[in-house]
Write a structure and sequence with these properties.
Elements lengths: L2 E7 L3 H13 L5 E4 L16 E3 L5 H19 L12 E5 L1 H16 L5 E4 H8 L9 H5 L7 E5 L2 E3 L2 H14 L3 E3 L4 E7 L17 E7 L2 E10 L5 H5 L9 E11 L3 H7 L12 E3 L6 E5 L4 E5 L18 H15 L10 E9 L7 E5 L2 E5 L5 H16 L4 E4 L3 E4 L18
Parallel strand pairs: 1-2, 1-11, 2-8, 4-13, 11-18
Antiparallel strand pairs: 3-7, 4-6, 5-6, 9-10, 10-11, 12-15, 12-16, 13-14, 14-15, 17-18, 19-20
Helix pairs in contact: 1-6, 1-10, 2-10
Bound molecules: flavin-adenine dinucleotide.
Length: about 425
């Protein structure tokens, strides 16, 4: 049986970026990328809203996102791969009180040259034709909604076409000699003793057991290193060999509403925010329902990241819940944007975030020849390139990864034993 230097389980954004950067660092290594689905990027990567923002208070967050987005910009502008980058901006809406709470953090960020712009109530009402004072409405009061007194617009933010990004990484990985195998489900990680003595049921605990590849639905694959980038499914493989990682799958759903009236078209192409001349990605005051301008399909996407009592549960094919839109997103959004009154979604889908409930950052570590890359916590696409580089550096035995723009990142900072991530203060 041919032996690979590494088998990577999972061709989502993390597996693909890892595969690409491993090949860049180790061009002669034999690398195989496997996925149980029929093509790359069909897991939660395909379910994403594909938004990014280079605006965080935590150095860890900012470095991972900013270097990744700059790499995507480079691919888009310099390598000529159209990633359909759109700089729509993010617009957070705040009540007076909530803005006061977050203002010191924002000011600290401005001192670090992170750009944002403030819009007052009047400007918001004018530009977005929205209702900013919702607390005058009895139903809104009952729902505990808050007024949108202030808008904070972050210009270095927008969307990327995730399918194009997936295609880019896959094509480049293959060009460098990387191999892919789809429709191949990894059932388990195989484990061998460091030195076999030919005893029954090896390895025993004193034989220094090491991962030696994977058992798949289509046979065994031998590899010196097994890299698990299996997203929400990772624990099903890792638990079998006693490797623990903070990874809690939770359902997230998106609903698409077509801009099929003049009022909605006006809103979608609202002027005065960014050069894209559209409504920014808008996050309502509380609860933080978000609305994405999906310009390529003349639509808006609605979502909300709910927690208690939403279960942590792995679902192979999670379904959107009609009532989540009908009694949740719709009720909240129409209080601020009456333009959506009567709108039914023309499409809906659900996927899963994989939460690191300890610090919301990715985890990248190695144990017994198994490298684990995961826990995207809802921001895997915007951090994808940096995560791939850090995982590749770990594979290559480097202490530091070189992120795009020649930024160094200590590999162990995202590990479990010497973890060192800066907490995020901009919690909005
Ligand atoms: C609704 C929604 C909206 C989101 N919006 C955003 C956003 O706006 N911005 C952002 O940055 N992120 C967003 N995310 C998060 C983002 O999509 C994820 O962080 C990212 O896609 C995770 O990538 P991954 O490679 O870890 O996982 P996945 O893309 O799920 O890849 C894992 C792969 O592993 C494969 N696999 C699993 N088990 C096995 C096995 N046993 N054998 C073989 N193959 C296996 C799967 O088939 C899958 O292809 C969103 C997620 C959801 C669900």
């Amino acid at each position: 049986m041919a032996e690979y230097d590494a088998v990577i389980v999972g061709a989502g954004i993390f597996g693909l970026a890892t595969a690409y950067h491993v090949k860049k660092l180790k061009p002669y290594d034999k690398i195989l990328l496997v996925d149980m689905m029929g093509a790359a990027g069909q897991g939660n990567t395909a379910k994403s809203a594909a938004m990014f923002r280079c605006f965080f208070n935590s150095r860890t967050n900012l470095t991972l996102v900013d270097t990744s987005v700059e790499f995507y910009r480079y691919v888009h502008e310099k390598l000529g791969t159209d990633l359909k980058l759109r700089w729509t901006g993010y617009l957070w809406l705040f009540s007076e009180q909530d803005y006061r709470d977050v203002e010191p953090v924002l000011k600290g960020m401005a001192e670090q040259s992170l750009e944002y712009k403030i819009f007052d109530e009047k400007e918001l009402a004018e530009k977005l034709e929205m209702t900013t004072c919702v607390t005058a409405d009895e139903e809104a009061q009952m729902m505990g909604l808050e007024d949108a007194n202030i808008g904070v617009l972050v210009p270095k933010a927008g969307s990327v076409d995730i399918d194009e990004l997936v295609k880019f990484y896959e094509a480049e990985f293959k060009k460098m000699g990387g191999e892919t195998r789809y429709n191949t489900r990894v059932e388990s990680i195989t484990v061998d003793p460091e030195t076999s003595l030919g005893m029954p049921s090896e390895p025993y605990f004193w034989q220094n057991p090491r991962a030696s590849g994977v058992k798949t639905s289509k046979g065994f694959i031998k590899a010196k290193k097994t890299i698990v980038a299996a997203g929400a499914w990772a624990s099903t493989i890792l638990d079998q060999v006693g490797i623990d990682a903070p990874m809690k799958p939770i359902k997230r759903q998106l609903f698409s509403v077509r801009a099929n009236t003049e009022d909605l078209k006006h809103l979608l192409y609202a002027k005065g925010f960014t050069k894209e001349n559209c409504m920014p990605f808008t996050i309502l005051p509380k609860p933080r329902v978000y609305i994405k301008p999906a310009l390529e399909e003349d639509s808006f996407w609605f979502s909300y990241g709910d927690h208690f009592p939403r279960a942590f549960k792995l679902e192979d094919d999670p379904q959107p819940e009609e009532n989540f839109y009908k009694y949740g997103l719709y009720q909240v959004a129409t209080k601020y944007f009456p333009q959506f009154m009567g709108c039914q979604p023309n499409g809906a889908w659900a996927g899963q975030y994989v939460l690191n409930t300890l610090d919301s950052q990715p985890v990248i570590f190695e144990e017994n020849n198994v490298i684990v890359v995961g826990s995207c916590s809802g921001s895997g696409n915007m951090k994808g390139d940096a995560v791939g580089r850090i995982a590749a550096a770990l594979y290559a035995g480097q202490e530091y990864a070189l992120l795009y723009g020649d930024k160094q990142f200590k590999v162990s900072d995202l590990g479990l034993k010497k973890r060192n991530v800066e907490p995020e203060k901009l919690i909005i």
